[in-house]
Amino acid sequence: MILTVTPNPSLDRTYEVPSLDRGEVVRATGERVDPGGKGVNVSRAVTAAGQRTTAVLPLGGAPGALVADLLDAQGIEVAPVPIAGATRSNIALAEADGVLTKINAPGPELSAAERELLLETVRRQSHAADWIACCGSLPRGLAPSWYADLVARAHTARVRIALDTSGPALLQALRERPDVVKPNAEELAQAVGRPLATVGDAVKAAEELRQLGARAVLASLGADGQLLVDDAGTWFGRAHVDAVRSNVGAGDSSLAGFLIAGGAGPEALASAVAHGAAAVRLPGSVMPTPADLDPDAVTVTADVPVDRPLKEPVP
């Protein structure tokens, strides 16, 4: 069972538009409303794959009630943490050429009592978990060390933990040795404080995160593929995608695929790549089912193309 923790969930509205012209009236050709937040998306992807999950998340106001209803309708077990503030609402504009513009609200501020209740809820739910996936930004009221505390508590309870966050929260959590961290290329560059121009640059950055404490690094490089660096070695995986419809939640789907497949080794990386590739072919933040996967389109190799330039270098 995969337990997900989303400290700053959202209600996500995605509009499909032909193009985005500033200052003009833009008429949407499609609209979706989904429960959002990186950990929520991991739970949705795990459920779509037919596996067990429980989502821990603070919920408040009308948006929070709608998030709970949407998750319940998808058959996802929710362990809600009631809060006084309203859950944030985010907007994504998906253009026909695949360009995505996101507007993310800051979210509510959690009180001291709400912070403690969130930790206590995770503790109670973790007894039945094989993995805990802690994902996303921290809301106001949670210090950057909050994830580090959660990783330490998970290891005390002998539960493996995957972390998908960035900035100071990621760097502080590394000292507690999370089992897996999943940065994208931008987050990886930010963590090491330098640009990434090649796949080899990303490999070196991932190795530095391991030196800082991460036991394994699963790095999403967008259209360039994914890397897995752990004690057993380094692997590079990618999949051909004809057309990108939306990349909202694709990284979260990848993490779900990785954990579903055991969370270690090239087989788990192949599952991560397959899930991520399937997700970008779907609208909004729709999570892929097994029928959407194309494992034959995935290649995983230990012969990492370190000199290959990234299609989208990170400055």
Protein traits:
single chain; 315 residues; alpha/beta; 16 strands; globular
Ordered list of secondary-structure elements with their pairings:
Blueprint: E1 2-5, E2 10-17, E3 30-36, H1 38-48, E4 53-59, H2 61-73, E5 77-82, E6 88-95, E7 100-103, H3 112-125, E8 131-135, H4 146-156, E9 160-164, H5 167-174, E10 180-181, H6 185-192, E11 196-198, H7 199-212, E12 217-220, E13 226-230, E14 233-239, H8 250-260, H9 265-280, E15 298-301, E16 309-314
Parallel strand pairs: 1-4, 1-8, 2-6, 4-5, 8-9, 9-10
Antiparallel strand pairs: 2-3, 6-7, 11-16, 12-13, 13-14, 14-15
Helix pairs in contact: 1-8, 4-5, 6-7, 8-9
What do these coordinates show?
The chain is α/β, with parallel strands linked by helices and 315 residues long. Helix content is 34%, strand content 27%. The protein contains nine helices and 16 strands. The protein has helices at 38-48, 61-73, 112-125, 146-156, 167-174, 185-192, 199-212, 250-260, 265-280; strands spanning 2-5, 10-17, 30-36, 53-59, 77-82, 88-95, 100-103, 131-135, 160-164, 180-181, 196-198, 217-220, 226-230, 233-239, 298-301, 309-314. It has a six-stranded parallel sheet, with helices on both faces. The protein has a four-stranded mixed sheet with strand order 3-2-6-7. Strand 4, helix 2 and strand 5 (77-82) form a beta-alpha-beta unit. It is globular, with a radius of gyration of 18 Å. 49% of the residues are buried. The model has no long low-confidence stretch (mean pLDDT 95).
